[in-house]
Structure formats: C-alpha cells, structure tokens
Specification:
The protein is mainly alpha-helical. It has one domain. The protein is 69% helix and 0% strand. The chain has 3 helices and no strands. The radius of gyration is 17 Å and the shape is elongated.
Length: 97
C-alpha cells in the first residue's frame, strides 16, 4: 500500500505541475496581449478581491486584443481545472494519510 500511495502522490504532483505551467504560460501570453491603455492594474474588474488575488475571470476582455481574448477562455478553464485538481489532492491526502 505504501508504493501505491507514493505513486498516487507522484501522479498528482506531476498533474499539478503541468497545470501550473499552463497557468503561468497563460499569465505571460495574456499580459503580453493587453491593450496600450493598460499600463497598471486598470484592466482588472474593480473590487478588493481582484487586487488581492489574481484570477483570469477578473480580467475585462475588452482591455485585451483579439489574441488575448481568444486565450482568456482557455486560461479561465485551466484555472478552474487547477483548483479542482488541488481539491482532489486534498481529498486524496485525507484518504491516504
């Protein structure tokens, strides 16, 4: 059983690292495709949560060019998948340990 739990943890960590890599790549691509008027955090929707915690769903699509808007939908999906994967990891840790 020890080997099986180690294999599950390793697979979970590999999956999380892949999702984090895609998340960071999406941050880079979307920030490179901001409009010229977005020199500060004005491209985020107003609110305290958007300033304290970066989420792709807080980005106003009108502040992006066409490439950024196309990439934004995939970035939102990837972010939700990453949070779901982390939740599965918490459940897995509760089950295994």
């Amino acid at each position: 059983m020890t080997y099986m739990s180690a294999i599950l943890v390793i697979v979970w960590l590999i999956g999380l690292s892949m999702l984090l890599w895609r998340w960071m790549e999406n941050i880079r691509v979307i920030h490179n495709n901001l409009g010229p008027e977005c020199a500060d955090f004005g491209y985020l929707k107003p609110g305290l949560i958007s300033l304290l915690w970066f989420r792709f769903s807080n980005i106003e699509p009108l502040r992006l060019n066409s490439v950024g808007r196309d990439r934004l939908n995939g970035a939102i999906w990837n972010e939700r998948a990453m949070y779901a994967w982390m939740f599965v990891g918490v459940l897995l840790a509760a089950y295994l340990f």
